[in-house]
Amino acid sequence: xxxxxxxxxxxxxxxxxxxxxxxxxxxxxxxxxxxxxxxxxxxxxxxxxxxxxxxxxxxxxxxxxxxxxxxxxxxxxxxxxxxxxxxxxxxxxxxxxxxxxxxxxxxxxxxxxxxxxxxxxxxxxxxxxxxxxxxxxxxxxxxxxxxxxxxxxxxxxxxxxxxxxxxxxxxxxxxxxxxxxxxxxxxxxxxxxxxxxxxxxxxxxxxxxxxxxxxxxxxxxxxxxxxxxxxxxxxxxxxxxxxxxxxxxxxxxxxxxxxxxxxxxxxxxxxxxxxxxxxxxxxxxxxxxxxxxxxxxxxxxxxxxxxxxxxxxxxxxxxxxxxxxxxxxxxxxxxxxxxxxxxxxxxxxxxxxxxxxxxxxxxxxxxxxxxxxxxxxxxxxxxxxxxxxxxxxxxxxxxxxxxxxxxxxxxxxxxxxxxxxx
Length: 422
Known about the structure:
The chain is mainly α.
């Protein structure tokens, strides 16, 4: 299990800072991989249409012209661009981009024109991923999604991967992260559909980096698939999910696409697949964080709040990191709010701003609760080593502690603003 927790009884001070640094580092690592992968994807399309390549994703997209070039390529329509170099010209171009995306039913969440023009890294990546998801993933899979009457493209893609790799006993793909790190899954897909291209036994003897390089080279040479991924970015503890989905979709596009409803049902019932269906979560350390004293009882009887959960270490880890990345950003956002003003009118504005922040906390409450429930379920299953169990307890304790601190501080600020604005 990848180390994310911290050791020791204390959940604050230098240990908490160390934990935060690890999560921020992991988030930045994924952003760097996405930047590299998404740039390669755009440039692969530009090279076919004779357009100049993108050099720096966060810089070259800010004036909106490259984005409009990309959408021209994807939609087949000519889109007008403003050639001026002022901020107004850039905003007008990006607004045109957002309008085209809206017309094509591309879902965007909290992404505005100023975010792209200002070079916001995460939101720029979010915008490009929305474009990729619509044209590279859903568009490629629309026919099979329609024939199977399925709307979840990721589920279909995983079903296809499992069907393609079924004859290979060394391969058991459960997700789009950790199941790909050793390179076997990529090679198994290629070998299943093009067995004459290489010997499976020779691949099995390679190192993970060698296998990944082998698969990407074979796909490039024989299938014309660009090397969107670098082996060193995949052979890590937790690869970037979006980048892997994008590459696997490229394989799906050019290889036979046999997927049956039985394959879909298998994915839906995978015993190690992370599933969460509970709602109305109550967050408290007493409910979710098991202690050593009640560990044995939790193994024997799963709490009623988690009866719908099936979870494994990998998916728990992914969910934990996603929640903690958000939690850290929320802590920063609360910290950056200005001190409560003495002016009543200013307080009213501050109250409105903070009310939106409180609504965001409420929206993420179930995500925090789901991770805490998943950790409890892992412990209750009784399949962990003592070290893994202790680590999960510490992770759950830290997550619960930081969530509760954030929630209380937010409520205290809201109460103070209410008093001053009256």
